[in-house]
Structure formats: C-alpha cells, structure tokens
Design brief:
Elements: E1 5-8, H1 18-31, H2 40-50, H3 69-89, H4 96-107, E2 111-115, H5 120-131, H6 135-138, E3 141-143, H7 156-164, E4 171-175, H8 178-187, E5 190-193, H9 204-207, H10 210-218, H11 223-232
Parallel strand pairs: 1-2, 1-4, 2-3, 4-5
Helix pairs in contact: 1-3, 3-5
Length: 233
C-alpha cells in the first residue's frame, strides 16, 4: 500500500498554537463580559471534542449567551480576531518534526495537504508567515474554514481526494481535533491523532516521521485494521 497524500492539521501538528488559542479565548470572554477564564487544561478539555479553532463553543452552553445568536457569533468572531492578530504580529515557526515529515514525504513523491477548521485568513497567515510564497508549491491543497460536520463522502476530505484523483485508502490524516479525525476516518482515510489530551493517542515522536507512517500504513495489525483482519481470518 502506498501513501500518496498526507493531510496535516495546523493546531498541534504543524504549529504549537495552544497558548495563542488560550489567550484569544480569554480575551474574547473578557470582551463579551463573561466571567469565564480558561486554564490550559480547560482549553484542552474543550478542544478534545470541538477542536482548538472552535473550542470556545463549549463554554457557551453554560451561559445564557447561548440563546443570543448574534452575541454567540460575535464571541466566535472576536476569538478569531484575537488569534489572527497574535499570529500576524508574531508568526509562529513550524514544528521541526513536521518540517522533517514534509521534506521526507515530498522526496518520496507524496503530496502534502492542509485541511483545517481554522478560518481561511488565519490559515493563510500561519502558512505564509512560516513558508512565505513557497507554501503554494509545498502544499497541493490548502483548505481553511473546513466544515467537518457534513455527511461522509461529501466533506472536505472527499472533495480534496476527488480533485487529486487519490483513493481514501492511499491517504493519511494527522490531526489533534476529534471532528477532523472523525471526518477523515468516515471518508476512509487512515488517521493519526497527535492530541496532547486523552489516553488513546499516538504521540508525535512515535508517528510523526514519514518512515513510521509507512510502517503503520503497511501493517495489518494496527488498531484500526486488527478487527478487520480477525474477521477475515
């Protein structure tokens, strides 16, 4: 089996953005007149189900604010503004392990794509701030503001693979966010979680290298494939 495409998330995969998301959420809470203030564990708990880009949504259910759609929209918009301003003022550098993975994958003829639910302007700011104009040649597909809630087979992964003419089983998605990983799995991609929360995760040092991904992809005894193998036997 070949790996023809690797989809990378931005939060926690290409960039360490936790502190920036935390500061943006707390600034948005303050500006909205809410008493909520998050610590890093609170952000991670919210990101476990919502992803970092939309983690602030988990705080809304506990507030009367949830009934005011206009204020909810403004809370999200303010959080995105705060985050965008932070990355524009001080563009974060890509994580070394991710850069090594990209180099090795490209040298092996693999396409690298970015699929994220971060807003498109923030996605562009992160990538251009780190890679400059080169990001247009490094990444085959870049999608910001992705919606991972649609029906399987019609979402952003399916559209990207269809545009490239690649079968889902020949692609891998690496992300920290449950919504993106679930959408990738439902589309038929191999998935690798590098989330800093939870017990059932694959840590970056183990599977962020291209050689390790190829070994994982070719083994019939990975967690996702073991049940299928046993049924076939």
């Amino acid at each position: 089996m070949s790996i023809d495409v690797i989809f990378l998330g931005l939060d926690g995969v290409l960039f360490d953005t936790e502190a920036l998301h935390l500061a943006a959420c707390n600034a948005a809470f303050c500006n909205a007149g809410l008493s909520v203030r998050w610590t890093l564990p609170a952000l991670r708990a919210a990101a476990a189900t919502h992803g970092y880009a939309r983690a602030i949504g988990s705080a809304i259910a506990c507030e009367l604010l949830s009934r005011d759609k206009a204020r909810v929209a403004e809370l999200f918009a303010d959080k995105h503004r705060q985050f965008h301003q932070a990355i524009s003022a001080h563009p974060p550098k890509a994580l070394p392990a991710a850069l090594a993975l990209i180099d090795d994958a490209l040298n092996a003829g693999c396409k690298i794509c970015v699929l994220t639910d971060l807003p498109a302007p923030a996605t562009s700011a992160l990538l251009s701030g780190c890679f400059g104009a080169d990001f247009n040649s490094l990444f085959t597909v870049v999608t910001g503001g992705a919606n991972f809630d649609g029906p399987a087979g019609t979402g952003p992964y399916a559209r990207a693979l269809n545009a490239m003419g690649v079968a889902p089983q020949d692609a891998i998605a690496i992300d920290t966010a449950v919504p993106g990983l679930r959408a990738a799995g439902d589309t038929g991609l191999w998935t690798v979680s590098v989330a800093p929360y939870g017990n059932d995760v694959v840590r970056p040092r183990q599977f962020i290298t291209f050689d390790a991904l190829r070994e994982l992809h070719s083994s019939p005894y990975t967690p996702d494939q073991r049940a299928k193998h046993e049924l076939a036997a």
